[in-house]
Amino acid sequence: MMNSGYMAKLLEGVEVEWISLYKLVNTITAPAKVKKEVYRLEGKTPIVDQGIDYIAGYTDEEIKSVEADEYIIFGDHSEHIKYVDFSFIQGADGLKIIKPINDMTKYIYYAFTNHYQKELNYKRHWSSARETLIPVPCPKNPEKSIGIQKEIVRILDTFTELTAELTAELTAELTARKKQYNYYRDKLLTFEDGEVEWKALNEIGEFIRGNGLQKSDFTETGIGCIHYGQIYTFYGSFAEETKTFVSPELAVKLRKAQKGDLIIATTSENIEDVCKPLVWLGEEEVCVSGETYVFKHNQNPKYIAYYLQTPMFFDYKKKNRTGTKVIRVHGEKLGKFVIPLPSLEEQNRIVSILDKFYTITSSITEGLPFEIELRQKQYEYYRNMLLSFSKEEVNL
After folding, report:
1. Which of these, 9, 226, 316, 387, is most buried using a 10 Å CB contact count?
2. Closest to 62 in 3D by CA, of 41, 49, 43
3. Is residue 50 classed exposed, middle or buried when 0-12, 13-18 and 19+ CB atoms within 10 A define those classes?
4. Residue 158: Cβ-neighbour burial (10 angstroms; 0-12, 13-18, 19+)
């Protein structure tokens, strides 16, 4: 990794000519295309299209692919820019396959990515994208120009590799911590016959169905509220503050959860998320939406929440769900789920252990995207530093 002083020295006094992208590249036509219907998760040939995924899918169809080489891929509608250095099949339409006239494909890719201004609308963009100005250092000295371009590519590749390594390390750490957490959770929540009392949820508490809260009801301030969709996308297993609010006038009409209640989302698009429990730990009561149940009880709320994350509950809700695209578990079925009930003292002990694992796992989960974002910003900063030359000379 080179520091900013080295980079400044690398570019010190360097003449640059700004040249429109289309003068530096050729566009090539793929020998064949495949439709979305033939995309597969696995196959011998990767498919590249204008979507956000680097590789959109795979196919085993015997059709001619784009030969292995270095290319820049531009989504004519999506405006996604990709660097590809392998053989692939074009997926659908709207793809511009760009091949630089010289051998500095990676440099032009970095420069194009840095200087192209996205319009962020669904029209064809290549007619304006091709005019993007690309800085060519030392245009009168091809050898020196290539040397500088290669060094810029080397530095940016290093940042890319370091970011990828960090992501892989953090992801591996997160996976290991989750396995460890799941192991101890399931071990601590597994009891021998006769060791503890077993009771159905409706024997130890009451389910109250949420009502009437729409996303359009959210306000900047007011009474805290939780929409069932937020339980999957925003909250972990416990919460003391809400993301959103409703007006006091609407709050009067809505059902509410108090401290220690579980808020259980009963509708989802997948079996993993349905019935995800959220323990409300805030001092003030909170409004809840439809497609949720508030579970009121006199047990340790975290103990119940942890048990509703075990394979035992997963198997139960899998057997008792309804629907395919929209999956539900009705309150009657939810209430019949039987859980082990050790003493409150033992529940507290188990929770204190699992809380430690949960905190470690959550900190890594939250830290992963933050660390990646920091690395991405650092990469973009240096990319901009290396590719932002003075525009004194422009060759349109």
Report:
1. 226
2. 43
3. buried
4. middle
Give the residues of the chain that fall short of pLDDT 70: 1-13, 364-369, 389-396
- Per-residue three-class SS string for 292-353: EEEEEECCCHHHHHHHCCCHHHHHHHHHHCECCCCEECCHHHHHCCEEEECCHHHHHHHHHH
Report the alpha-carbon distance of residue 320 to residue 306 in Å, rounded.
20
- Mean pLDDT, rounded, of the chain: 90
Which residues have CB under 8 Å from 12's CB, separation 6+? none
Contacts of 238 (CB under 8 A, 6+ apart): 278, 279, 281, 302, 305
CA distance 396 to 21: 9
Candidates 382, 384, 383, 385; CA nearest to 12 is 385
What domains, with CATH codes, occur in the chain?
19-136 (3.90.220.20), 141-191+343-386 (no CATH), 197-341 (3.90.220.20)
Whole-number pLDDT of residue 346: 96
Angle at alpha carbon of residue 353, lines to 349 and 355, rounded to 5°: 110
At 4 the pLDDT is 54
| Residues 58/41, Cβ–Cβ less than 8 Å | yes
**Tens of pLDDT, residues 89-131:** 999 888 999 999 988 999 999 999 999 999 888 789 999 999 9
Of 50, 170, 152, the C-alpha closest to 110 is 152
pLDDT of residue 392: 54
